Protein: LysR family transcriptional regulator
Amino acid sequence: MAPKDKPIELHGSIWMTVGGENLGGPGRVALLAKIAECGSITQAAKAIKMSYKAAWDAIDNMNNLAGEPLVERLTGGKGGGGTRLTRRGEQLVKNFKLIEREHRCFVDRLSRQAEGIADDFLLLRRIDMKTSARNQFLGKVTQVRQGAVNDEIELEVAGGQKIVAIVTHESTDGLGLHPGADAFALIKSSSIIVVTDDEGARFSARNRLTGTVSRVQPGAVNTEVVVELPGGGTVAAIITNESSNALGLAVGARVTAIFKASSVILGIPA
Structure:
């Protein structure tokens, strides 16, 4: 399974504070648990890969913040003494494990509800993208044709529509454009030519998107024409008022939006 196809998972950790100061989390509680098991700070620190000094610093900090000792030294005896948890320390380890287990169940429940969150996050990033180009199409690269100087990139967008762009070899490599890659196409509305009857006509422009006029917004000089495409996408064109009147553009009219491959700017999602 490709990394981008793997489901998103949520993870989290829990720690304790006293007056805003860090008392301890999984690492420090693991140290306490090992001290209870080994009866030695040296062995406990080694078991969790912590230096002896760091272990004692953590213990001193926890003892001070807890307001009472969590670890105490044992002196004398055949083994020359050692360390053990106080009753309060034992209680803290026990309760932290209970809290941590409940926290893990809570995070697991959230993770099960997170299906689709990655797609929504990417969608929000795309929505937030700022560009002067009126038309933005997200799709997948379906074909890369290499030329002597430039490459021709074919992008399939919503509704199965195909958009072709001409980019340099350097751009192809730099953007990682290859079949299956996600990419978006940007086309300025002023680069769009609107045609009402293209039956049998030939054009040098590589791209042709056919749809139905959904909005005509006249201005002082120009008119914005929005064409609804199969699959729910739209393409907007800015043409002169004179052209709009001559073409008899109205909502519901079937038209074709034509633009050159060189007018398409390609990018990749962040």
Residues 87-112 form the longest helix (26 residues). The radius of gyration is 33 Å. DSSP finds seven helices and 14 strands in the chain. The CA atoms of residues 36 and 84 lie 6 Å apart.
